[in-house]
Amino acid sequence: MKRKKIKILALDQSTSNVGFCIFEDNIYKISGCLEVHKDTEKKQYEYEWVDRGVNIVINLISTYHPDVVVIEEVYAGKNMATLKWLATLKGRIEGYCLSNKIKTDIVYPTSWKSFIKANGKRAGAKLAVKDYFSQKCNLAIEKDDESDAIGIAYYYANKCV
Fold first, then answer.
1. Is the pLDDT of residue 97 over 70?
2. Is pTM beyond 0.85 here?
3. What is the Cα–Cα distance from 131 to 145, expressed in whole angstroms?
4. Where are the beta strands (DSSP E) in 36-157?
């Protein structure tokens, strides 16, 4: 009996964008980056962008019907407000998936980056990831969030499935 293909939705969330990628088993299907918040836009409410980010993810789930949603673990950087917002977004995504019986998994940035050997200082690592997947998937990737989502999906498809 042939096993069912596993459709992965990988997410790289930030305060300005949600990068996403769909892999079916270990085959790249589609990726992109959807804007959550414009840098020039003044936020009236602290968590307004969290609502937007959650709605983007719900729409991605409704469109692609993944078997698993893979989320990058939140990085505890210097900005505690950003950490709090990203953790809230991650929790709301996990809650939505749980209530809709969609498996979730968390991937650490160091895990997927070391898998493709893209370690080092942040700016250099971001460029290395973008270049790696631009060549591997024959894509013109403009945003770091998209290339990171591709990296998360690639890692999960090849290492965790």
1. yes
2. yes
3. 13
4. 68-72, 103-107
